[in-house]
Amino acid sequence: MKFSDFVSSAAIKPELAARDKEGVIRELAGALVAAGEVAEEDLEGIVGAIMKREELGSTGIGRGVAVPHTKHPSV
What we know:
Elements: H1 21-34, H2 43-56, E1 60-62, E2 65-66
Helix pairs in contact: 1-2
């Protein structure tokens, strides 16, 4: 399986309004809700799980690129 198999093209946001980590994660998770990839009622749980994962270590890979991720029962 390729990383691209997990990407929803409908949820890609080339420009983000948020400038802080939680705001960016919330905006990206919101894009998944808007694309119909996750349920709106799961948004807060997903954001919380990603923020908890970020406490273990940043998912940033350099040059302004990050792959925020987590395990969540809804996905």
